[in-house]
# Entry
Amino acid sequence: MKPITRRILQAVLYEAVAIAVVGPLLSLAFDEPASSTLGLAVVMSTVALAWNYVFNALFERWETRQTTKGRSLARRLAHGIGFEGGLVVMLIPVMSVWLHITPLQAFLANLGLLAFFFFYAIGFTWVFDRVFGLPASAQAHQPPETEGSCP
# Structure
């Protein structure tokens, strides 16, 4: 599968499954109609996708100006904290208004969602890789065959 096709398929399936799971969970947790919380899940997914694009563009712009190149653990942690922190800040008012809850309750709900998505992302990518195979970047490279070499 071509890398761009794989990325698009993975993103679409990831968000579709997340919406299908998170919508009903929010309905149960906040005693709201599933139709309402599914709508909220779609909005949250859209915000997350847009924020992912914007945040990564900003992060990479910042990263190009750094004298130290590469992605150390500290830089990866900064990336993760920055992305998730920004997403939580954007989703608190959305959840608060949509679910008729306080900002503190929305913040706590976001912490629960962060925990869920941590494990969901690991599980989803494992299943995705099992179904569709590993991307070329993760496959063991076979040395090219040369003329006259023995198997």
The longest helix spans residues 34-64.
